[in-house]
């Protein structure tokens, strides 16, 4: 304990008394991520407000052989941004690294400190008619978004964070805490290895992001959503292709919801307005948005031209359509996770596959799960437009608490199938952290893990982040 | 020479007699890149047709301490894909690695061998109404496009190669010639460090790309171009912002041409049709394209709504507008490089800066060049929509041949200004090779070069590619 006190004392001397938290009650707000589960109690929570102070912290950590765990908005879902057990990590909160916000409306770029929240960036950008188009349910920090390479619901139209990232300031996790500026506010720039890419989606394991420049887009002048009730989930894919053909770049989101997931949302989330007479076998939420002098009535016309013929006659694939110019229909989609959590224990699987495989996978897995993981019921929803699926298994709490082995077995059924049989991904957009590093070990070939470990070690010889992408034995 | 013959002999035994070229006349076709300048004579040109054969070649190169220089379509502009002087490099041509072409029209992806040309990929994609939207004057191979991270004229709308890249098969330049598959045909996939990023824009220095998966886009259903004659170059930027506002995602290219560059094109390139009564002080080529049920008449209307008011009255910024639904106006833009080469010795500077700085930079540099680099005359054109500028200095051949020191001094004026005074890039989209590695040494901070060198060495312990991004002394 003496050593612990000494370490805390020297941290206070380094960063300033007010910005080093060591009491459990003061640190409580930094111990939960977006999943709500608690991380360990850190040695300290440190809240520097400059890259220079972070550099000093890294040098201190190198001297004292302490691991640094960077935390952005604590909205991650893989426990990558909370301290480990054992009380030995320094949790580096970026919540005070928020001063710099520069919007360049002519260049359509924003340069912001890593601790700035997405909502704050978007409020600043909105003053110029611009926004950062990566859409998420949460309100993460920009640094965290880069560290997770978040995707979200509009990837189809705007890409992921990586494809909107122009530049990064970072502090290396090395003995010197070297500060590097990688890139600039430039749409085109190719000058050798693009080292900032090694921090994208890396969860803080390869260094600490302190400032980023991202591309902005013009806020849409017109936007509408349609919730389309389908008589059969398999109709969702041909409809996607029809919509891409009819709408071009107007199509900004194409989300799917299974019947059972919608039932859970309407049963458990208060205030949701059900737009249909009954909950259909499947529904897709289609968002149209357009810059330029277009209006919603043009969008309505365009949608009707595609959907109208699909509603006619016996066995018509489209049962009903609700439209909205606000966020009412999105509220249904966003309510699904809450509905599932209220219904039971949720085994979340953030997977991706080829778009054409999604519906076949659903049928296939429904069979496998009911046979090999009794008690778990698939409640899937997600980003059908990009092949991303939140394939969640719900264990009804009426059955009691599921045992750990059963949960793991169920998850392995899903991951084995998506990776080995469908060539898909066991981590579409949540990234890798303590929660899923075991699957990384299982599914990523050893030659890639070994190489990743060597690259990571070169980037960050001082321990940074919760996991390592190297082989465990290295 | 005995050793040389032995090496060539063992290469033939490894790859097959027919696919190892060692006679100067047979190798002549592999010695020129897109700039037309000759590289050195290689030890041999080797043309394997599989990743396995490339792996064997790498093991051979490791055993014999020979450098491998990968060559795609030989359309690069920085000499990265031609052999060095000295006769010691093996030139690895990918021109037979072309068998695998798979278009997945539902997923909107293409998986192709690295030696497949852009035109071949696009012909295969067009059968499904799709295309790979990176537009270039040349017809490179896909592997080369990744290795250069090409940008082109439609970056504004579709991004660069990196943001359209999903997966890569590669052969490591290590003693084992390890074959790795990095990623899959997935729109979302985040499983640790994304190592394929280290081969993007790296010119073959970090390994050999053998197959890639890229995202495809739907071919536009409607497309038109407008050439807008401006009374003043400074009007190009406000017009860009107006167009972005009015056209949204319909705006797919926004290219600028200086008056003197246009004069050179019309003077020296036969068959160009001049659409205006006289060549204006500046012109922008605007491309509109749209997927979905839109047509060119809607585009004409939209354009007219913006441009009409700008043509009225004394001192109106828009002097004239020509429109086209084919590629006639693009032909003018694409003729500019040829026009400049016909006019004199061209010192090409592939630079980028913030969009808002472009016109100020042009004015500034025109002064600096006329003062400090007499005899050189700026003839710029380029991608105003993304801040990319082909800032070319032309030395009239009537003045005789410029001396090397004068050329270098002129180029340094441009690069010093763009990097040091404007925070821009000395290599926007051509990448780094022997032609410009000296500028990399000058402008990239040592801490970044040192780190890049270590990462490169980890990726490729066996010499691959023409340059190294590490510090020279390492």
Number of domains of chain A: 4
Summarize the amount of helix of chain A as a percent range. 25-40%
CATH arch. level architecture of the largest domain in chain A: 2-Layer Sandwich
Most extensive chain-chain interface = A-B, 91 and 91 residues
Q: Per DSSP, what share of the residues of chain A sits in E-state strands of 2 or more residues?
A: 15-25%
What's the level 1 CATH class of the largest domain in chain A? Answer: Alpha Beta
Count of helical segments of chain A? 14
Using only CA atoms, what is the Rg of chain A?
A: 23 Å
Largest β-sheet summary of chain A: 8 strands, antiparallel
User: Average pLDDT value of chain A?
Assistant: 96
Descriptors for this entry?
homodimer, alpha+beta, Uridine Diphospho-n-acetylenolpyruvylglucosamine Reductase, domain 2, Uridine Diphospho-n-acetylenolpyruvylglucosamine Reductase, domain 3, Alpha-Beta Plaits, 8-stranded antiparallel beta sheet, 14 helices, globular
């Amino acid at each position: 304990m003496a050593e612990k006190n000494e370490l805390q004392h020297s941290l206070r001397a380094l960063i300033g008394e007010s910005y080093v938290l060591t009491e459990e009650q003061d640190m409580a707000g930094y111990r939960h991520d977006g999943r709500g589960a608690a991380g360990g109690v850190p040695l300290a929570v440190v809240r520097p407000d400059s890259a220079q102070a972070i550099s000093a912290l890294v040098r201190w950590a190198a001297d004292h052989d302490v691991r640094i765990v960077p935390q952005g908005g604590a909205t991650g879902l893989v426990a990558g941004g909370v301290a480990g057990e054992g009380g030995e990590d320094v949790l580096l909160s970026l919540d005070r690294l928020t001063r710099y916000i520069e919007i360049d409306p002519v260049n359509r770029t924003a340069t912001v400190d890593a601790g700035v929240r997405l909502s704050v960036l978007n409020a600043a950008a909105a003053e110029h008619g611009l926004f950062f188009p990566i859409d998420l349910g949460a309100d993460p920090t920009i640094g965290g978004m880069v560290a997770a390479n978040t995707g979200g619901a509009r990837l189809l139209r705007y890409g992921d964070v990586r494809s909107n990232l122009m530049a990064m300031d970072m502090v290396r996790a090395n003995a010197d805490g070297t500060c590097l500026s990688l890139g600039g506010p430039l749409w085109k720039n190719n000058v050798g290895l693009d080292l900032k890419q090694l921090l994208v989606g890396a969860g803080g394991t390869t260094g600490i992001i302190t400032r980023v420049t991202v591309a902005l887009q013009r806020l849409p002048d017109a936007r509408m959503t349609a919730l389309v009730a389908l008589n059969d989930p398999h109709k969702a894919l041909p409809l996607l292709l029809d919509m891409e053909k009819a709408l071009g770049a107007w199509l900004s989101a194409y989300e799917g919801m299974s019947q059972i997931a919608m039932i859970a949302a309407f049963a458990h989330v208060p205030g949701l307005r059900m737009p249909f007479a009954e909950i259909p076998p499947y529904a897709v939420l289609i968002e149209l948005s357009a810059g330029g002098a277009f209006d919603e009535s043009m969008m309505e016309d365009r949608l009707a031209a595609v959907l109208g013929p699909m509603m006619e006659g016996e066995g018509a694939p489209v049962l009903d359509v609700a439209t909205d110019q606000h966020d009412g229909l999105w509220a249904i989609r966003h309510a699904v996770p809450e509905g599932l959590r209220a219904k039971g224990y949720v085994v979340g699987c953030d997977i991706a596959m080829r778009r054409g495989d999604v519906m076949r996978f659903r049928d296939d897995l429904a069979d496998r799960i009911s046979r090999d993981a009794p008690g778990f019921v698939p409640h899937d929803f997600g980003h059908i437009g990009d092949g991303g699926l939140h394939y969640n298994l719900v264990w009804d709490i009426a059955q009691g608490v599921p045992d750990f082995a059963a949960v793991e077995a169920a998850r392995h059924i899903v991951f084995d199938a998506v990776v080995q049989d469908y060539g898909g991904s066991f981590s579409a957009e949540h990234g890798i952290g303590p929660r899923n590093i075991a699957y990384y070990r299982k599914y990523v070939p050893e030659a890639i893990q070994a190489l990743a470990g060597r690259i990571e070690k070169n980037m960050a010889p001082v321990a940074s982040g919760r996991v390592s992408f190297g082989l465990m034995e290295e």
